[in-house]
Design brief:
This protein is an alpha/beta fold and 576 residues long. The chain has 21 helices and twelve strands. The strands form three sheets. A six-stranded mixed β-sheet has the order 6-9-10-3-11-12, with helices on both faces. It has a four-stranded antiparallel β-sheet with strand order 2-1-4-5, with helices on one face.
């Protein structure tokens, strides 16, 4: 947790005031047994009612003052912890957004969700309790020992021995449980992964009647976490009873030694009562300190997981140049590009080369697993090419800032994602400053004007989470419209019309040729009808480039392309 101390910057006043107020409360608590000893030895012994009442009023005033101090300290602790947690989560989320796809996949999406939510909350709670008790509990615990020595040295030694034994028990259990808490948090990653997979794939799960199997698998993963928590809880549960035993042994020793001394007159009754009260205070504070240390053990394990994310450096650094498209240079160019996914068994792309000028259209076609989506990811620089060069505007994408690159190049993927809000708010992801007419034009080009126009609220129509109140085709068209609202210089459509019927797909392509005539367009599809009218068609097979040319040229000299055409078109269409 020490590495996260930077989030305390600007809140040093709370860091000082909260523990000091708690320390003042502890000091007042230590004075109470001494006042009670005087009440017993002086007021009650002499039957002086006014003395007893006066000191009783003093104790009541001390109690009220201590309550005010305690509330004030807890207010500052809560405000400090809340500010700390907010700043940490903001930075953690922002850092995750700087990571590449490879970085995210290496850590795990489910693990990142757990670290941003559950782990960060555990760290925040640990910090809150740390500032509440870190000064108070040790101060009271050792203060009772000091006060006991001031009352009587022999009795103080008995209490000191009990405190030392209790402290050794707490530290021993902390060493055992810290590693177990890290295992529990890793188990929560697995639970999060199972939940995300089943919620996102619920239709597939039901289609294959896998409910019972998935329920059983989830029970196994959740059960493993439960077993770890129960085992750790059983170990932690031993701390309080053992602490009780140690302190009560000290109390027995205190009474065993103090009883005869009271009878002999070397120790007053008030002093013995004060010593018993100090033992009770030490017991309560040791239990609090025990719980604090157990909580800090969990928070420490979570803080390590949070720091692992912060210490993950983005594998792709920004270049120094801004992406600019020039009419005399290719908008997009691949120069002998090859790429292998991290941990992949073979190349996803091998020796791909082409050039695409502004205002031209490149169709990309191939079978499943041929590398079409990989090509789109390289253009967007979600990954860096293993060898060769990917250029945008004549400059290698490695030398461009990612912000400027993605301002120039926009991608629409097959799995269109919409965000909760309205149609307009989703469109403004692409064009924050676009006017209403620009948004309507984007909808019209994307063949989505009827989606907004057919709803009572128009552009203000509600979009539920992930756009689940729209069909697959509607989500794809709205995603295309969102990208067109940005007016990109390079538009990459990665099977973005797979859910559209042939007529709507054809209308979309005609609208793109008409309204995006100045942009370079990459159409990635498995449909021949989608790419056949492109200026050039790139044919991929198993990651290898096996053809590049027009529809007619490829029919003549590319067997793979001809085979694809014959599988989708009639013999008359192929002949024409």
């Amino acid at each position: 947790m020490f590495k996260l101390r930077r989030y305390l910057a600007g809140h040093y006043a709370e860091c000082v005031v909260a523990p000091l107020f708690k320390g003042l409360e502890a000091l007042l608590q230590l004075l109470v047994p001494l006042v009670m000893a005087q009440v017993i030895d002086v007021g009650i012994a002499s039957r002086d009612a006014s003395y007893v009442l006066a000191h009783g009023a003093l104790l009541a005033g001390v109690g009220v003052f201590a309550w005010v101090i305690s509330v004030t300290a807890q207010f500052f602790c809560s405000r400090l912890a809340s500010a700390f947690g907010t700043a940490m989560r903001d930075d953690l989320f922002a850092h995750v957004l700087t990571l590449s796809r490879a970085d995210v996949e290496r850590i795990g999406r489910a693990s990142l969700v757990t670290r941003i939510t559950n782990d960060s909350q555990q760290v925040q709670d640990g910090l809150n309790m740390f500032f509440r008790l870190i000064l108070r509990s040790p101060f009271v615990t050792f203060g009772t020992v000091v006060a006991a020595f001031l009352v009587d040295g022999v009795e103080g030694a008995a209490l000191l021995a009990a405190v030392i034994v209790s402290g050794a028990i707490v530290m021993g259990f902390m060493r055992v449980t810290t590693g177990r808490y890290r295992q529990i948090q890793r188990g929560l990653d697995d639970v999060q992964l199972r939940v995300a997979e089943n919620l996102e794939g619920v239709r597939v799960l039901r289609a294959f009647r896998r409910e019972e199997s998935e329920r059983s698998d989830f029970a196994g993963v959740a059960g493993a976490v439960r077993d770890r928590q129960v085992t750790t809880g059983d170990i932690s549960a031993l701390v309080n009873p053992l602490t009780y035993v140690a302190i009560n042994c000290g109390l027995i020793a205190l009474l065993w030694l103090g009883g005869p001394r009271v009878s002999a007159g070397t120790l007053t009754q008030g002093q013995l009562v004060a010593l018993v009260s100090y033992v009770s205070q030490a017991l309560v504070e040791l239990l609090k300190l025990t719980n604090l240390i157990m909580l800090l053990s969990k928070a420490s394990a979570c803080a390590r997981r949070v720091n692992e994310v912060f210490e993950t450096e983005p594998s792709m650094a920004d270049g120094p140049l801004e992406a600019v498209l020039a009419p005399d240079r290719p908008a997009v160019a691949f120069d002998d590009v090859s790429f292998t996914y991290p941990g992949g068994a073979g190349s996803a792309l091998s020796h791909v080369s082409f050039e695409l000028m502004a205002g031209r259209t490149l169709g990309v076609i191939g079978g499943t697993g041929s590398g079409k989506s990989t090509l789109a990811s390289l253009v967007m620089r979600f990954y860096d090419a293993t060898s060769g060069s990917v250029r945008v505007g004549g400059v290698a994408v490695r030398d461009l800032t990612r912000q400027s690159l993605r301002r120039v190049v926009s991608l629409v993927e097959q799995g269109a994602t919409l965000f909760s809000g309205t149609i307009e708010s989703n469109l403004r992801w692409g064009g924050p400053d676009a006017g209403e007419k620009d948004l309507e034009a984007a909808l019209s080009t994307a063949q989505a004007a009827g989606i907004a126009g057919g709803r009572e609220d128009g552009l203000a129509a509600e979009v539920e989470q992930f756009g689940r109140n729209f069909s697959g085709g509607q989500r794809q068209r709205l995603a295309v419209a969102r990208t067109l609202a940005r007016r990109p210089g390079v538009l990459v459509l990665d099977d973005a019309s797979s859910a559209l019927d042939f007529a709507t797909d054809a209308a979309l392509r005609r609208a793109l040729r008409r309204d995006c005539s100045g942009a370079a367009v990459i159409l990635i599809s498995q449909r021949v009808t989608t790419v056949r009218h492109a200026d050039q068609i790139l044919v991929l097979d198993g990651g290898r480039q096996v053809g590049l040319g027009s529809h007619e040229e490829l029919l003549e000299r590319c067997p793979v392309y001809r085979e694809i055409c014959e599988s989708q078109l009639s013999s008359e269409e192929v002949a024409r």
